[in-house]
Design goal:
The protein is elongated, with a radius of gyration of 19 Å. The relative contact order is 0.15. By secondary structure, the protein is of the alpha+beta class. It is built from six helices and eleven strands. The strands form three sheets. A five-stranded mixed β-sheet has the order 5-4-3-6-7. Strands 8-9-11-10 form a four-stranded antiparallel β-sheet. Strand 1 and strand 2 form a beta hairpin. It has helices spanning 23-27, 43-61, 74-88, 103-107, 156-172, 194-200; strands at 13-16, 19-22, 31-37, 64-70, 96-98, 132-136, 142-147, 174-175, 186-188, 206-209, 212-215. The chain folds into two domains: 13-154, Glutaredoxin; 173-215, Antioxidant, Horf6, Chain A, domain 2, CATH 3.30.1020.10. Helix 2 crosses helix 3 (74-88).
């Protein structure tokens, strides 16, 4: 079954580098980033995991946890993290899920439902589709998804920007325009009527078109 934005994020219990966890329980009342990798000991992913570790304090400020996933074993993950720290200059500070039976990859529609085989015998090419990012809210619903090819390193600064936008929408019912950055003007969503908008934004808004109501970013 496909996973779509707005769906309840599929729950699971899994072995990780920080012990056994249940995904929904682990999220708690905050936000979460689940990001997956096709294979351990791969070059692009090595750079990504290191950068995510450096960026984790920024996600912490936003009450957002990070968790990685690869179809390899937790034992392989623990061996890989040494390479990541050595080459990227930062130790992994978030859990990595072992998904040797591909069950979570299939649960999140990241790989063909008929995919099979021992994790150690599978190559990164076999798992090319497992290069995804999921943002999950406190309500356990999927707020955003991004999938990359194996050859392109993910931009985790963009993932952080995307999280900021999702959190603003959840709290203030505003949307963010093209190339928006933290602190810039935002847009009142169409679902908010002018009458309600007057209560929420008493200083008013700019409206070059009736459907385009621009206000300073709410705090």
């Amino acid at each position: 079954m496909a996973v779509r934005i707005g769906d309840i994020a599929p729950d699971f219990t899994a072995q990780t580098t920080e012990g056994t966890l249940n995904f929904h329980d682990w999220i708690g009342d905050g936000w979460a980033i689940l990001f997956s990798h096709p294979k351990d000991f791969t070059p692009v992913c090595t750079t990504e995991l290191g950068y995510m570790a450096k960026l984790k304090p920024e996600f912490d400020k936003r009450n957002c946890k990070a968790i990685g996933l690869s179809i390899d074993s937790v034992e392989d993950h623990k061996a890989w993290v040494g390479d990541i720290e050595e080459t990227q200059g930062c130790a992994i500070n978030y859990p990595l899920i072992g998904d040797t039976d591909l069950s979570i990859a299939k649960l999140y529609d990241m790989i063909h439902p008929n995919a099979s085989g021992e994790a150690k015998e599978r190559t990164a090419v076999d798992n090319a589709t497992i290069r995804s990012v999921f943002i999950v809210g406190p309500d356990k619903r999927v707020k955003a998804m991004i999938t990359y090819p194996m050859s392109t390193g993910r931009n985790f600064d963009e993932v952080l920007r995307l999280l900021d936008s999702c959190q603003l929408t959840a709290k203030h019912q505003v949307a963010t325009p093209v190339n928006w950055k933290q602190g810039e003007d935002v847009i009142i969503v169409p679902a908010v009527s002018d009458e309600v908008a007057k209560e929420r934004f008493p200083d008013g808004w700019k409206a070059p078109k009736p459907y385009l109501r621009i206000v300073p970013q709410p705090k």
